[in-house]
Design a protein that fits this description.
This protein is α/β, with parallel strands linked by helices. Helix content is 30%, strand content 19%. The chain is elongated. Bound molecules: flavin-adenine dinucleotide (FAD).
Amino acid sequence: MEMTRRGFVGGAALASIGALSATMLAGCSQESDASEPLAESGADAAAWDREADFIVVGGGGAGIAAAIGAANAGASVLVLEKAPEKHAGGATSVVAGIVNMWSEDKNPASNWVQYRTMGYKSAERGQKWGENLPDLLDILEDHGMGWETGSRPESGPGNIADHGPALYAALMDAMNEAGAEIVYESPVTKIVTNSETGEAIGVYADQNGSQVAIKANKGVLVSTGSYASNPELINSIHLPGFEYFSEDSPYNTGDAFQLLAGDLGAATMGFRDIEYDTPAIKLASKEVGTSVGLAKAFAVPSYLYVNGAGSRFMPEDLAIMHNKDVAFPWLAHSRRNPDANEDGFEVAMENYVNKTSFIVLDQACFDAGSLGNTNWTWSWSHFKDEGDSGYLWSEDNQAELAKGWILQGNTIEELAQQMGVDPTALSATVANYNQMASAGEDTELGRAAEAMQPLGDGPYYAIELGVSVLFTTAGIRSDDQDRVVKWDLTPIERLYVTGNAGMNMFVSPGVLTVLAAGYTIGQDVASLDAIQA
Ligand SMILES: Cc1cc2nc3c(=O)[nH]c(=O)nc-3n(C[C@H](O)[C@H](O)[C@H](O)COP(=O)(O)OP(=O)(O)OC[C@H]3O[C@@H](n4cnc5c(N)ncnc54)[C@H](O)[C@@H]3O)c2cc1C
């Protein structure tokens, strides 16, 4: 890899990144010829374009909290963010804001963290997160973050007022006041390590097509979020053969894997689960570019789910959101596929009949309200503007019918033809469903009687469904101080990872934990001695 400092200090790059401070550039220790190649590693090798005490890779909740913690402790901080300013903030900028307060007295942080990490983090580390969280929340409240109930819950569940956008605005405000700096459109492409000591000494970032080298005097944090927007990676880690649609930031493509596992041999962990959500509306999601979700409830429940064979396959009232026990059977099992083994698990990927699935409904259900995400489904598509990977579904479903995202047929047979499903099979399924709904008992799959209503008059409608990924949590393994570890579990000094890029959490950590961990890392890095040049 050949890198020069031409692009970074050139006028175009300066203009695009806004406020590169002259003082920080002045701190660069070495001058180099613009065409002089930079070595990839080695204590004395890099001709740095600029420097900071602490470099944060990824400006979501973990990264910005870390920047606040470090800057308030006196460190100079540079956050490098891959997205342009209007798309920055990652998952954190679109959270629903439902949080669980873990305070020391009522819900000991140490136990909570140990339970959720299955012991990968110590009681002491959990304690530190637990002690730091209220301090950070004080700061965020001072910068405009509020609570739906008016005041911060002492323990247990609560809701951040105005959701992710308000949380992210408070984080940015606090970070700016603390004096940390962020540059956008600067994806980090490599972590630079000292070839003798192995410690992290800086990063390479891509700016306007040029590579720039930035020195980290004290440490580097990788907080690049989840891999929800990398369907190929999801397919290779989780169930193959399905189309996955992300509700997370489109910039969250799992870059930590390349930066840390690929380049530096870091260990990975925790791939048991991903956070699913209510099914995605397939055609809408494809067109919009991020997952457009199906509504989470229907005022008139005259609907059913069917697979590509025209059969029901799961009780439709079971919530898939955060629920692996439901999502996995939906994806991988079929009670009806003749090729399934005795546990119902598909034998061959091409035979996953649930790979194709639809919701089928009648006119009454269609008329009762929005079938897609409106104001209580939190996802990237909900918060971003149309044309910017965002989409807000209409209240009367007419716009989506006109777009062809909803199929329509005067009869079930006609609808089946449009769906590409055997009309006889679908008719039989609907007849059977109607009979059970009228009798008030789902003898087939156990859907609650009050959540079922027979399909009445047509026309009838169908929407093809896909798998919606809220976010992922597995990734890079770290030690008790959140330093990246290699496969032999030795830490890479001065290199940290947290947030959805890898928290050692076996169940989703939630945004408060991400913030507390990031803030703690920022303080830890600020307290380190600078590398001796
Ligand atoms: C729709 C949705 C709803 C949610 N609701 C809740 C909720 O109600 N409660 C809750 O507790 N949790 C919720 N979560 C989970 C929570 O949002 C996340 O766990 C948390 O915000 C993750 O923070 P993070 O900093 O790790 O990642 P993110 O906030 O995703 O930030 C990652 C950042 O890294 C940047 N980046 C990526 N690659 C690079 C690179 N190579 N170089 C530089 N920058 C890079 C990205 O652009 C992004 O800005 C929700 C998540 C989603 C997606």
